Structures are given as C-alpha cells and as structure tokens.
Amino acid sequence: MSTQSTPRVLGAALATAVVVAFLSIKLNAFRDYQIAEIAINVTAVAGLTVLTGLSGQISLGNGAFMAIGAYTTALLLLHLPWLWFIAVLVVAAAATAVAGAVVGVAAARLRGPYLAGATLLLSVALPSVAYAYPGTFGGDQGLDVVFTTPGFLGVNFPLTRWQAWVCSAVALITLILLANLSRSRVGRNWRAVRDDEVAAALAGVNVARARVLAFVVSATCAGMAGALLAIVTELVAPGAFTITLSIALLTAAVIGGLGTLPGAVWGSLVIVLVPTYATDVATSHGLSTSVASNIPIVAYGVVLILVMLLFPQGIQGGVRWLLGLVGISATRTRREASGPDVTPPAGKAPASQHEALLAQGSDPPESHEKEGTQ
Amino acid sequence: MVEFLQFTLSGLSFGMIYAAIALSLVLIWRGTRLLNFAQGGMAMFTTYIALEVIRHTGSYWAGFGVALAAGVVLGAVAELVVIRPTLGKPELNAVIITIGLLILLEGLAGILYGGQYRSFPAAFSVIGLKAGSTPLGVSRSDVFVAVAVLVAALLLAIGFRYTSAGLRMRAAAFNATVARLSGIRVARVITVGWALAGLLGALAGVLVSPSTFLYPNSMDSIFVFGFTAAVIGGLDSPAGAVVGGLLLGVVLSYAGGYLGSQGSDLTALVALGILVVVLMFRPDGIFSGTRMRRV
Amino acid sequence: MKRSHHLRVPAIAAVAVAALTVAACSSGSSSPGSSPAAGGSSSAALTASAPGITATTITIGSHQPLTGPAAPGYSEIAPASAAYFAYVNAHGGVYGRKIVYKYLDDAYNPTTTAQVVRQLVLQDNVYAIFNGLGTPTHLAVLSYLNSQKIPDVFVASGCDCWDAPTTAPETFGWQLDYIREGKILGQYVAKHFAGKKIGYFYQDDEFGMDGVKGLDYEIPKSMVVSRQSYVTTNVNVAPQVAALRASGAQVVVAFSIPAFTALLKLTSLKLGFSPTLVVSNVGSDPITLSGLLESFAKQGGATVNGNALTAGIISDGYAPSVGDTSNSWTALFKKVHDQYDAKAPFDGNVAYGMGAAYTFVQAMLKAGRNPTRADLVSAINSGLPQGDFVAPLAYSATDHDGATGAYIGIINNGVLTQEGPVLVTDTSATGAITTYTGTEVQAPASGIPVP
C-alpha cells in the first residue's frame, strides 16, 4: 500500500483535483460524464482492491453493495427530496456499511472460491428483491432520481460538470482515507491476516474482526459509488446491477494492480474507456451489425487476457517497471511492521504453487503471492 | 402430490446440468486450483459447433460427438495458451484471464453465428412420459440427460480411482513436486485435466441447449448455478458436484412451484439461502474433507 | 531513495491527464448550440437548420440491445430500420438529405444507456433519438432528453409511460402499448371462452404486468384460475406450467417473449398439457416461434417444420403479418429486406423496424425542408398518417401514444391470419373497445411516403 506520508498523499490528491477540475472545464460535456463514470468506478474499485488485495478476501458481490447504496439514495431523494446530497451520501454509506457487516460476518469463515461463489450469488440474487417488491423499489422500471446543480453555481453551470466534480471529490476523499487506513494498524492487520492467518492470530490479531472490517470498508466504498451512480444516471433499476458489474469491478482491481490505489484508477480507466473506444473503431468500418457490435466485446476480452499475461502485477506493476527503467526506483524504503513481505519471484515453477496451496488444506488466503505494496 | 413429483423430476433434470458444469469446475479446481469462469462460454461455443455439424450432416449424434471432441480441444488449447503462463503468478490473474476468455468467446460466437436464438435439437423426444395417465414431468430426453451426466461422472470416478492415468492426475494435484520426482509429467496432466473439463462442459452444453435455446449468453445463468452447486458440494469433490447440482435443481424447482407468483423472482435468493445455510455449517462445502487450521 | 516517492503520484496524474487529453483530442466536438431556424418555403435552399442536420444529412441516434441476453430478436430491429433508411436515401432521401442512423449498443443495461445516449447527443450531435429500445433502459434517459429538448420519437417499448405530454413533451410512443393489447385480447377471451378456466403466464416486469392489467379490465376475475409469472433469467418454467396444469386452465393467455412462449409450448408437451394458447403480439411472431420450435417438430422420423407446433395459437396484430405476402406493406418491406438486410430472417422484428422507420420519414417530411428540433415535435403533435398500422396513430398535442388498435388473428401455417375486425381502445379500465371501420392504407407504390 502507499507508504507516503499524509502531506504527500494530500498533495497528490490536491494536484489530481486541480487537474480534474481543469479537464472538466476544458473538455466537452460528454467527457465530463465519462470523468464522473470513471470516478464512480474508482470509488468502488478502490474499496474492492483493499478487500481483495489487502485483506485477501475475494468478493464478486460489490455490485450488490452498489445497488444498496443506489437504492438507498433513490428512496431518500424520493421521499425526502429536500435533503442535501452530502447527507444522502452519508446515509447510503452507512446503510451499505451495515450490509457489509452482515455479509462479512456471514462470510467470515469462507475462503477463496467458496467466498467467491457466495458473493457471486449475492450479486445475482440481490437485484431480484427489486422485482419481488415493485411497490417499494419500482420493479424493473426502477426509481427516478432528480439531481440538480446547486443554486450558488448559477443557472448556466452544466449539470455534467457538477456531477463530474461531485464524483471526483468523493473518489479522491475515498482514496485519501483508504491510503491512510492501509498505512495504519488496521491495514497492517489486514495484510497479516492475508499472508498467514494462523501467525496473525498467534500475534494477537483478531482475525474475524479484521476480516469483517475489511468487508465493511469495501461495502461502504461501493455504497458511495452506488449513490454517485444514482445521481449521475438519474435512474436506479435492477438492470444496472447485473453480475457483469461485479465482475467488471474485480477485473478493474486486478488489471489495475491488485491492492494498489493507483491501480484502482488504472483499472477504472480501462473498463470505462476501452469499450467506448473499441465501439467507435468498430462502427466506423461499416461492418454488419452483428459483427460490429461484437468486435468491441472480442477486443475487450483480448485486452484483459493480454494485460494479465504481460503485466502479472497489473498496470501499476507495469508503471513501476517503466519508472524503474527510466531510473526511478519504485521500491519501498520503509519496511512496515506488517506481516512478512511475501513475494515469490515471478516465474517460479507451478509445482511450488500447488505445494504451497495444498499444504495448507483446502485453500490458503487468496493473495498468497500478491505484492501488496507500491 | 402429482405436482410434487413433477417438480422433483424436472428439478432433477435441470440439476443434472448444473452437476455437469459443477463437475468440470471441480476437475479444473483439483488440477490447477483455478476457477474457470469461461466454462459456460466454452460449452456454448462447442454447442454452436455441434449445431453447424448437425445442420450440414443432418445427424444429431455426429454433432454430439463433434461437440465433445471440440470441448476436449478447446479445453486443452485454453490451458496451454492462456492458463499455463499464469501458473506461479497471483492466482486472481488466471481468474481474470478466464473472464477475458469468456468475453472473447461470447463476442466470437456473436460474430461467427449471429446473436439470434437458435433452436438446438434434443437427443430424443421431448414429449412427456406418463405413468398411466399422469404426466411425470420428464421426457425421454430428460432421462437421457440424467443418464449421460451420471455415466460421465461414473467414468470419471472410475478413471480417477482405477486407472494409472487417474492415479497420475490425483498425484499431480496432491503434490506436484513429488509427482514430478516420480516421473509424472505434471504439465501434461494439467492439460489433460482441462481437456476433460472441456469435454464435460461441452456435454452440459448440448444437453441443456434444447431447453435454453442457443445464443451467445445462453450458458451464463447455467454457469452461475453450476458454480453454486460446486461450492455447495465442495470444490474438491466430484460426488459433491453431483449432489450439489441435484440439490440445487430440486430446491429451485420447489421454490418456483410453491412460492406462487413471487417464486420466479426469488429463485436466486432461494439459491443464495441454500448456499448460506450449507456454508454456515460446512464452510468448504458438504463433502469437504479438509479441515481449516484454526488457532 | 526517499526522493523517488514524490515523483510517483504526479507521474500518475500526468499519465491520467495525457490519457484524457488524447481521448479528448480524438473527439473534438463542442456542445450543441441552436442554429437559426430557416424558412420553410418549398424551394428554399437546404441549410443546417438544427444540430444533427446539415445540407446533405440528417443524423439520428438510438440505443439498442445489440449484445447480451436481451439481444436475440431485438437486435434485428435497428438494422431493419437502417435498411429502410438506406432505401429512402437511394431514392432521393428526405428533401434530398440522407438519413444517417447511428445506433449504439447498451446491452439492455440502463447505466450503459445513459452513457451512450449522452455520447450520441453530446458527441455525435444527433438531431433526435429514434426508437430507443426497452422500458428500464429508456426510462434512464427520459428526463435527460426532455430537459435537453431532444426529440425522443417512437420509443420501442409498449409501456404507456411514453404518453406524458406535460412532463415529457419530446417523447412519443409508437407500438401498441401492452394495456391496450391486454384489453383487446381479454375481450376476445372473455367472449369466446366464456365459462372456461383461464390461466395467465406473464413476464414478471412492466411488459407482462401491464398486459395482465389490460386483461383484467376485460376478463372477469372469476374466470382466472391461475397466474404464473416467469423471469427471463430462469428458463426452467416447469413449475409454472405444472401449476397451470394443476389449476385446470383450459386457456392460457401468455404475455411472454418468443423464447418463453416456445418454452411454454415445449414444457406443456412434456407435461401432457394442451390448453388453447393466446399469446401477445411480441411473443407470437410465427417465424421466430417456428424457428425456435423446429428442432422439436420431428414426428416419426420425418422432419416437419415448426409450423405444426404453432398452429392454432391466437394472437393479435397491429400491422400486417409478415407471412401475408399479398399485403402491400409486406411486399414493400420484403423488397427492402432482400436488398438491404438480406442476412436477417424476414420476421416480425424486421417488419417492426421498417415500420418505425417509415413513420419517422413521414414525420420528417411533415417537419419541413429546414426543420428545427421543435418542428419535428410539432409535426408529430399535429398527427401522422397511420402508415402500415391497421388503426390510426393517436398523436396529438395531448396524446403521445402511437398505435391504438389491433386485430385478433390465429396462426396457421406460419402466418397470422386475421379473424374479425380491427379493434381500437384506450388504456383506461372502462374505455370501450370499438370496431375500427376505416380501411387499411396501402403502401405507396414508390415505397416512400408522400410529403
């Protein structure tokens, strides 16, 4: 995780905020919308990368948490339209945190693929609640969300730019908070539990509490992302929270660099921009619809495979390697008092993975080989 | 009472399909400790190949055979080309690669065969069988589905236990280093494992496609339930896969039948409920043999 | 080594800036402004009278499920519309302008719909959104399009939520909405199957539920012995069919998509259940149904085409059946299909897409030589000819519904054959269903609407 001290983190966040604000004014309204989309994904993916990368719990259900955040937002704004958005955001985050605690407790004993299966089914099953109770949740048509620019900005301030600002602000604050969290004892406990549960327990870490806390944090981030999604798309419907969403979030986390916060940004850029770009390229070539509409899909699949083959540590790993080439050392200087830095050299024979995995019984903590540092 | 029988039998026949997918996932898990998210996509693709063969030759069984062969080839190729490079790397990388493979196969199917529904023939008649004058809720086709999956599972079990090839696979999965030291070509064994999983997936695809119609995303929800069945039964246990599949199929059938008009909405929630209940008592699935290390 | 740290995050920011700037440079469009309205005289020069309109082109956009689980069937509609536009373009276009139809894939996901529609409006500067498909998907962009005053015409969905002239003045429906359809089918069922037991089989969303609402307006509650719903994510409908059978239903009214109508039929065969089937228009397209069922129609070794399994299904139609080759509209659409969309099967979806495109061309012709966006909306508000529909379109300043009526038909030999007159009605519980006495409008000989 980030080893920068707080001033540096804040400085970086401030710089990014200035850049984003500049871009949002310079670029057109559609790009503003994309900035908002990317920021929403960053918020959700950052939480997931912490959960899966730092605490070693694989979750395919963060789409469900986004749904909870989004529906909470929609219901609040529907019944209490005078609420300020910041209050709505806090309530949505809190509601999702509770859900995260419930899921975390239920999943506390689950490992690896069993946790993956349970969270996968959660993301499939939760949206169907909206279908089952259409009176409250609007059924398949969903709930409308009304979101307008605040009065003090004047009538001519474009809504898309305001949405981009709000989403980017939430994303940046989330990143700052997560960076701090990962450098704190909580983060160290997570890494300890991830790397060797038994050793961590022997060292006095409350394993169950650490795992549940990770779920709560991850769910809160996803819930906030869901709230942002509600105000940006202005409709909350179950069709937006399919299993594809949960899988896309995990994909973004791993592609970007699992366990790294810049990785959340890279991954979000990939899942938002690559399909759009591929669609533009495909449709401009005059192919038949069934071919042209599937080419972006094929391209996206190929991109995923290639990035994972070429950059096993994700894009952030590639960035670090690039910076290393240029002569900028990107290793940590300060050893944290966390668990052992478990990084088997790349290219180790398959046998060792099998051995290590099988020696522990059914399944070890997921990110056994993961390098969770910058 | 008649409905109960009908629900049970139709639940069992869908459950067999989930069991087939679960079996292929178990095979891959035991061999390479990976979750193959592309299993459903590979099954869909081989079923398209079967459909083309059936259309050109007019013979169902030719298509059936080609599908199984294509499954073997597809599984082996996938392992060699995209999975092999990931061994030794963080295991989520391989999961993402299988997700990429799934997306790639769905897009490719859309390009090659179009996105419309295709009707896939059943092996035998779909007219319901009757006990006297009471419809049982299953057809000859459903019986064939159940028999085919059971035969496949049995052959796998026998193969694992009683043949030297099976012994090699079990050894390689248990302790790859020692297996290698005994002269077992672990890499080849892994490829064979994926090839067998591909065959099972292809079998599931041709067996279920008459009921789902064939289109690029047709195996998506079958995969989700198959994965759930594997988790319920325990990812290390082929028997668990079959039991998990049948259990899931039957309970979902009852849910759909007895919960009235909300039953269809709540199917996924019921599945989640079953999963939660099972995992609460057995966090590694019903048939898990290994114990967790606790302090 | 401490010095390396502070280069890292700004470097990341720099890369992000670079990425976004590259992306921005490749698009380079500004936000749409309004252009001065041009005059409407018949010999006026063609000007760029609105965003999306140039002297030579009209650009319109749409969101469609081209991939994903909702794609089968629906993904045929937009290419069919594009085919009809290509035909019109080849024969002089609209006042000499060619129609450019840009439809983007949203995979039936409202989040994606919101994104692609903004892309069409903000980046591609489309003149209007045409035939946006799906209820939850289009609802995601309804308020956006109306607040931006983008004409949102002929939505491809049977929800009656597109008829809201006060809150959504830019939005117009087109196809027969599901409540009207339910009423028309319900009246037929109540009359022809009086005293029999009726069962419902419906999709568990607004499509099925609106249809059931309409059915309930006409069918007495006492006749309905079972109501079974299904979700598109679960293809095992055996529980529902078993329940229908157990209830003793002799007639099943299905508001289902073709795949599930076919599953209903197949599962009924499995359960030895043979009710009379009454199916809504969308789910009864004979070509699609036969295609889905053809693998199961073998009898005693000989292959019969799927038509045998669709015979006797009762349905409704609000446009001519594609199997009715003597109909002038079918002949026109077949000609266009064979020339511009030959790879697709010639089925109900293709006729739907072409019919909607035809109505759009009519509207554009009425909007004038150099129309603004407002001109298109007022053109539709002043009423449009009914095109290939069997009953008039309802468009007016206070009514944004499209089709108002349909005929009942029975499928025979893969063709929906009309039985009885065209019936028109409204969406209210008590609105009467009346016979439409007007005659069907023939397709123009040239295939292009006359201005």
Summarize the structure in short.
The complex is a heterotrimer of chains A (374), B (295) and C (451). With 295 residues, chain B is mainly alpha-helical.
Strand order of the largest sheet of chain C: 2-1-3-4
Number of alpha- plus pi-helical segments of chain A: 16
Largest interface (CB < 8 Å): A-B, 73 and 73 residues
Question: What does the average pLDDT of chain C come to?
Answer: 88
Helix- and strand-based class of chain A? mainly alpha
For the secondary structure, the number of strands of chain A is: 2
Describe this structure in words.
The complex is a heterotrimer of chains A (about 375), B (about 300) and C (about 450). Chain A has about 375 residues and is mainly α. Chain A is built from 16 helices and 2 strands. Chain A is globular. Chain B is mostly helical and about 300 residues long. In chain B, strands 1-2 form a two-stranded antiparallel sheet. The longest helix of chain B is centred in the first third of the chain and has 31 residues, at about 1-30. Chain B starts with a helix and ends in a 14-residue tail after the last helix. In chain C, the strands form 3 sheets. A 4-stranded parallel beta sheet of chain C has the order 2-1-3-4, sandwiched between helices. A 4-stranded parallel beta sheet of chain C has the order 6-5-7-8. Chain C has a 4-stranded antiparallel beta sheet with strand order 9-10-11-12, with helices on one face. Chain C has helices at about 5-25, 70-75, 75-90, 110-125, 135-145, 180-190, 205-220, 240-245, 260-270, 285-295, 305-310, 330-340, 350-365, 375-380, and strands at about 55-65, 100-105, 130, 150-155, 200-205, 225-230, 250-255, 275-280, 315, 405-410, 415-425, 435. Chain C has about 450 residues and is an alpha/beta fold. The chains are: A mainly alpha (about 375), B mainly alpha (about 300), C alpha/beta (about 450). At the B-C interface, α1, α4, β2, α8 and α10 of B face α2, β6, α8, α9 and α10 of C.
